[in-house]
Amino acid sequence: MGSKAKSKDDSIEKLICDYDGSKYEVTMLAMKWARHIKKLEEYKSQPMADIIEVAIRDVLSGKVSAEEVSKAVSKDMAIEEALLNKREEGKTRDKKPKADKK
């Protein structure tokens, strides 16, 4: 591992260790943020481990607030629900009643 990677790891560890709030809550917040940013174009091809690291950094550094995470998650859920409804509409439209054969 290069020195840049080592210092990068050290800084995330330092952020985690120095955080004085609930580690469980900040972890849950970071995981929600990670699921959100995974959907963004720039992160789609990134390994989930890298995305989780970015999310932890964003949450612990204050780059993203709990409110912003909540809004992003709500927006993602609304989009997913709309897509699901659209798929369901397509399925019911494709099903045509069959004529009875006598």
Any low-confidence stretches, pLDDT <50, length ≥5? Answer: 1-6
Mean pLDDT: 85
Query: What pattern of helices and strands is seen along the backbone?
Result: HHHH
How many E-type strands? 0
- Indicate the radius of gyration in whole angstroms: 21 Å
Binned, the helix content reads over 70%
Give the oligomer, counting copies of the same chain as homo and different chains as hetero: single chain
Count helical runs: 4
Distance between the termini: 75 Å
Structural class by SSE content: mainly alpha
Shape: elongated
**For the report, how would you describe the main beta sheet?**
none
* Strand-residue proportion: under 5%
Structural domain count: 1
Structure keywords:
disordered N terminus, mainly alpha, 4 helices, 102 residues
What do you see in this structure?
The chain has one domain (19-90). 74% of the residues lie in helices and 0% in strands. The chain contains four helices and no strands. The chain is elongated and about 65 Å long. Mean pLDDT is 85; it is low at 1-6.
Concise synopsis of the structure shown:
This protein is an all-alpha fold and 102 residues long.
